[in-house]
Specification:
Elements (H helix, E strand, L loop, with lengths): L5 H6 L6 H7 L7 E3 L5 E3 L1 H6 L7 E7 L9 H14 L4 E5 L4 H5 L7 E2 L2 E4 L1 H5 L5 H21 L6 E6 L3 E3 L9 E3 L10 E3 L1 E3 L4 H8 L3 H9 L2 E5 L4 E3 H4 L2 H8 L6 E5 L4 E4 L14 H10 L2 E5 L7 H13 L5 E6 L1 H7 L12 H19 L5 E6 L6 H13 L3 E5 L1 H4 L5 H12 L15 H11 L5 E3 L2 H15 L4 E4 L19 E10 L4 E6 L18 E2 L5 E2 L3
Parallel strand pairs: 3-16, 3-17, 4-15, 4-16, 8-11, 17-18, 18-19, 20-22, 21-23
Antiparallel strand pairs: 1-2, 2-14, 5-6, 6-14, 7-12, 9-10, 12-13, 14-15, 22-23, 24-25
């Protein structure tokens, strides 16, 4: 069976001028800063003018743990937004921007798929409006100013062994994880060890995505802890006097990006922290703006619900005062079979038993999301190889968990294939059933917060952490950071820290390797297992096949 590729479909899109998409939301053209004809930024002035308007209903799209079989979370987010518009609701989509690292690594580009996509697809995956470059530049300006301060006399008495601010770039490059800088003699400064993270793991990225406006942004940037003195006194970004210049670099990047779906519905694509090593949600400013402009806002959180949804609820919603009305958990029959032990090559054959065996992974995500007080519906993202018996098995299992599973055919049919889910989401959201509350209170001790996530969300028996890590957490509590939420950096493929363990495991341990204070963003990063904040490229990276063809079109990215 021959299907058009995502990029072929995207190139055939009948896009409307971005000013028309803005008009749909009531955004005057003078408040749209166009980047070409099909994307624009929304002015801070207009966003401020919305403050008195009521909010629409917020719907989170999350998923089971990702498998090589594919789940289609972004595709379902886009499809649901189109579906809600189709049934007469004024809906806005909010998703993250793509990182160049995974695009040229193993993931490839993505902005949905099939007939449920956001366009322009190529630009969204390659530079877009330059937000990530601005974040990279602002981050590295601070790095440069720290080394420069030490070179010119170190007035702040920074202990060069205790500089915690690394550098970033938006590319996968394992060679830069641990490096030595300032080599080459007196003229180049004092040699020291440091390293690079990927831009989407930068605290500047997290800060941009959690800030309400430019004033809030500059305050948060100033709050970044960059180093310590020999007496372990913290040195802040504002001490280095970098916060003002960083804000200037981020001025345009703070404005949300407006684009459209294939069906010409509005979508904000803004911010993009990784979900396994950062908090994995689009920007607060985009989400809050969308809530003022639409009856429904459909947003996604990265990877499975154990990472994305937990961080969305415990970090983004807590910090921004958001109250989600409903959640959608995306699953596929293929992924259930894979969780049930079927190899990728054999997923096309009917295997109801494997579907049933793999469903507990979905069941745990349903229970976890419900534990936040948010009502849940399951979207079965349809593949042409799915059989009626396999779909029925998933529906029956979900019904046993006290939820409903709905077959969705938006990939092939666009909004027409997802009307049932749209109606179910409206029913859930308008029922007032959501009693949302974060998993733990602000005042809970930091290590207890880590244990709460590990035990209640991952179903682990224990958290393994050296005395040095526990002491560091206690020191941050003593310094006034005890009320911060936790951002777990963990593999996305499993409830455990072992990416090869599928299903719904119990009786495992969560080893903590390192903790990092993100004082500006307002959370503690807890790095578990073998997770890396600077990914490497695979043996055969996507970059090897990405090129321009004879028509000047990008090939190999999708």
């Amino acid at each position: 069976m021959a299907f058009k590729t995502d990029i072929e479909i995207a190139r055939e899109a009948k896009k409307k001028p971005i000013m028309e998409i803005g008009q749909k939301l009531g955004i005057p053209s003078e408040h749209l800063l166009p980047y070409g004809h099909d994307k624009a930024k929304v002015s801070q002035e207009f966003i401020k003018s919305l403050s008195g308007k009521p909010d629409g209903k917020l719907v989170l799209v999350t998923a089971i743990n990702p498998t090589p079989a594919g789940e289609g979370k972004t595709t379902t987010t886009v499809g649901l937004g189109d579906g809600l518009n189709r049934i007469g609701k004024k809906a806005v989509i909010c998703i993250r921007e793509a990182s160049l690292g995974p695009n040229f690594g193993m993931k490839g580009g993505a902005a949905g798929g099939g007939m449920a996509q956001v366009v322009p697809m190529e630009e969204m995956n390659l530079h877009f409006t330059g937000d990530f470059h601005a974040i990279t530049s602002a981050h590295n300006l601070l790095s440069a100013m720290i080394d420069n301060h030490i070179y010119w006399g170190n007035e702040l008495a920074i202990d060069e062994r205790r500089i915690v601010w690394r550098r970033v770039m938006d590319m996968n490059d394992r060679a830069l994880r641990d490096i030595v800088v300032n080599l080459g003699g007196v003229a180049n400064g004092f040699p020291r060890q440091t390293g690079f993270d990927i831009t989407v793991a930068s605290e500047v990225m997290a800060i941009l995505c959690l800030s309400n406006d430019l004033e809030d942004l500059q305050k948060r940037l100033g709050d970044i802890v960059v180093a310590y003195t020999r007496e372990k006194k913290p040195i802040y970004c504002r001490d280095i006097k970098a916060d003002g210049a960083m804000t200037v670099l981020l001025k345009d990047a703070m404005q949300p990006n407006l684009v459209q779906t294939l069906e010409n519905n509005p979508a904000f694509v803004h911010g993009g922290p990784f979900a396994n090593i950062a908090h994995g949600c689009n920007s607060v400013i985009a989400t809050k703006t969308a809530l003022k402009l639409g009856e429904y806002v459909v947003t996604e959180a990265g990877f499975g619900a154990d990472l994305g949804a937990e961080k969305f609820f415990d970090i983004k919603c807590r910090k921004a005062g958001l109250k989600p009305a409903a959640a959608v958990i995306v699953a596929t029959v293929r992924a259930m079979k894979m969780n049930g032990g079927v190899a990728k090559a054999d997923l096309g054959a009917e295997n109801v038993e494997a579907v049933q065996k793999g469903c507990p992974n979905l069941g745990r995500h349903i229970a976890n999301v419900k534990s936040f007080g948010v009502p849940v519906v399951v979207a079965i993202n349809h593949f042409y190889s799915d059989t009626d018996a396999e779909v029925a098995a998933v529906k029956a299992y979900v019904a046993e968990q006290g939820a409903e599973a709905i077959l969705c055919k938006h990939w092939a049919q666009g909004s027409a294939g997802i009307e049932d889910l749209a109606n179910a989401v409206v029913k859930l959201a308008e029922s007032g059933a959501s009693t949302f509350a974060p998993l733990y209170p602000d005042e809970m001790p930091l290590f207890q917060k880590v244990e709460t996530i590990a035990k209640r969300i991952y179903h682990a028996d224990e958290v393994l952490a050296d005395k040095s890590i526990r002491d560091q957490l206690k020191a941050w509590e003593a310094a006034g950071y005890g009320n911060l939420p936790i951002c777990m950096a963990k593999t996305q493929y499993s409830f455990t820290t072992d990416p090869n363990v599928r299903g719904a495991p119990t009786g495992h341990s969560v080893p903590v390797r390192e903790v990092r204070l993100s004082a500006g963003a307002g959370f503690i990063v807890v790095i578990c297992g073998e997770i890396m904040t600077m990914p490497g490229l695979p043996k055969v990276p996507s970059a090897e096949v990405i090129r321009l063809n004879d028509q000047g079109h990008v090939e190999g990215l999708f």
